[in-house]
Amino acid sequence: MTLSFTKMHGLGNDFVVIDTRHSHSVPSTDMIKHLCDRRLGIGCDQLVLLSAPTHDGADIFVRFFNPDGSEAGACGNASRCVALYLQDLSAPTLQTHAGLLSTSRQGDMITVNMGAPRLDWQEIPLNHACDTLNLPVQGITPHPAAACSMGNPHATLFHGTQDAETLGPILEHAPLFPERANIGFAEILSPTHMRLRVWERGAGLTPACGSGACAAVVNAARRGLTERACTVDVDGGTLHIDWRDDGTVWMTGPATRVFEGTLS
Ligand SMILES: N[C@@H](CCC[C@H](N)C(=O)O)C(=O)O
Question: Which InterPro entries does the record associate with it (predicted)?
């Protein structure tokens, strides 16, 4: 079988995009893991599968896979890349497991409406009822985390970015998160500015996590630490997040096409 792919990135969070709309070759889970491998395959933080939409009003159906083969409901940086990939459409609507996402392009900057965050413990999900602004993770860290879902589960800690590599993998697998979770480590710089590193579920530390930035701003605003519109500096650059009064979260940042290839 041959597979054509496009390598893209959003602030260094990199993707192998495979468009199956005009082919019969859909990679299996083992193949996805292999393609994501940086030594044995192409290498990426997520593999993005495109297919024909099944929903009225959508231009494309997008699925996101982590290097461990698990599927994620949302991926902010990849959503911007897909909006860039569909270059013939100026404002494509993406069908994802997290819902329909509208997008728009201003030069090389792309805005995605990531939808409304889910704040109830069942929707994140957590494994028991608790205050999602003060999660019981004291056995792992003295600092309480806050959680929400952006279509995928996120928890954010607000005590600096230094523990991302050590606490991230432990919290990702904490029993509190039955579907595991992406773990954000934030430092609040001002009411409209934060620094963030994210340990991603199924991928580890990445240079940027778009849904993680959305979740961090939602969690920070709920805690009263920032305003609802906030600039987020990640290792790979800067994202602008706006949790609008209608409840939806809008993310703006760049997307880049790197190269195209064919695998046999
Ligand atoms: N890189 C992403 C998030 C990818 C999915 C995540 N690892 C998960 O399993 O939920 C982003 O930019 O949002």
Answer: DAP_epimerase_AS, DAP_epimerase_DapF
